[in-house]
Amino acid sequence: MFRNYKTVGRIIYGRNSFDQLGDILDELRTDDNSYVLFLVDDYFEGKELQKRLPARKNDIVKMIGTIDEPKTTVVDAIVAEVKSLRPTNPVSVVGIGGGILMDYAKASRLMFTNEGSSAQYQGLDLIKNKGVHCTVVPTISGAGAEISMTAVLTGPVKKLGIKGNFTPADQLVLDPNLIASVPDPQHFYTAMDCYIHNIEALNGNRRTIIGDSLGIESLRLCREVFLSGNSHTPENDEKLMVASYLGGLSLTYSEVGACHAISYGLATVTGIHHGLGNCIVFNQLDEFYPDGVKEFREMMRINNIELPQGVTQNCTPEEIEKMIDISLTLVFMWSHVCGPEWEKIITREKLRGLFQKM
Ligand code: NAD
Ligand code: ZN
Question: Left if phi > 0, otherwise alpha if psi is -120 to 50, otherwise beta: which for 136?
Answer without folding.
Answer: beta
